[in-house]
Design goal:
It contains 8 helices and no strands. The chain has about 260 residues and is mainly alpha-helical. The chain has a domain of about 150 residues. The longest helix has about 35 residues. It is flat.
Length: about 260
């Protein structure tokens, strides 16, 4: 099982390198190869996830390794889905590195299969944690699009250019998706906490930083919809917000132990 997971990481890396070379040198053959390798990596990752779930006799999202693996898998799902819909190479340029980097982080976490803690044995488990993986993946890809937007601006691109507007709008749509799913995460977590610990909210570090992240993205959406902010300011918002997501995802577990420390 571990060999398969490391093969997945190598495949993501190969896809990332092929895509970056293809995008930089404008070689369609490399981009096509990147898409094929990325699809194979995703398929292998799916097999790994199912295999681990069967071995663990549960949904494989119970610790930091499994959550990171699910996060990377979700980034691959969104990346492939967006590419199939838009047929735009830049989707791969953003989503493949996201899947590779998160999967690489997972490789440094303990991989042993452990039994679920009693608090995790709940019907809310799949909804709460599954929503979090896709929420973080949407935010990560949106942040990558923000980086792309800023890089294109630095190269002299016009903010009114079709590709620039498309990048900006797609980041916005992904943030809308991520925000909706993060709302589900927080609400389902509150209900689950009341059942497990007899309190809706305990200001646990993971809860607090999830709320901070939610508020930051709420500000983004408010400025976008009510103040009509677009372009460069929104790109910076998307990039900075990813830092919050990363800290909520990994930093809290390492630096601020609390009720969610079982996810380490």
């Amino acid at each position: 099982m571990q060999i398969l997971f490391f093969a997945v990481i190598l495949a993501y890396f190969a896809a990332m390198m092929a895509q970056l070379v293809g995008a930089a040198m404008k070689k369609p053959a490399f981009v096509k190869a990147a898409l094929g390798i990325f699809a194979l990596a995703f398929a292998a990752h799916t097999v790994f996830t199912v295999w681990r779930g069967i071995a663990a006799a549960r949904i494989p999202l119970a610790n930091q390794f499994e959550f990171a693996s699910g996060f990377a898998w979700s980034a691959a799902v969104l990346g492939l889905a967006l590419y199939m819909k838009l047929k735009q190479d830049w989707v791969l340029t953003v989503s493949i590195p996201a899947a590779f980097l998160v999967a690489s982080y997972a490789a440094f976490q303990p991989m042993e299969i452990r039994d679920l803690m009693p608090a995790l044995r709940s019907t809310w488990f799949a909804l709460h944690i599954g929503s979090a993986t896709f929420s973080y993946a949407a935010f990560a890809i949106a942040g990558g699009l923000g980086v792309r937007y800023l890089m294109m601006l630095k190269k002299g691109a016009d903010e009114k250019d079709t590709h620039m507007r498309q990048t900006d709008y797609m980041a916005y749509r992904l943030i809308c998706l991520g925000f909706l799913l993060l709302t589900v995460v927080i609400l389902s977590g509150a209900i689950w906490a009341e059942q497990a610990w007899s309190r809706w909210w305990s200001w646990d570090p993971k809860e607090t930083w999830a709320l901070i992240t939610w508020i930051f993205y709420a500000i983004y959406l408010h400025q976008r919809m009510r103040m009509n902010w677009q372009g460069k300011r929104m790109a910076w918002f998307a990039v900075i917000a990813v830092v919050l997501v990363i800290f909520t995802f990994a930093g809290v577990n390492k630096l601020l132990p609390g009720l969610h420390s079982y996810a380490v």
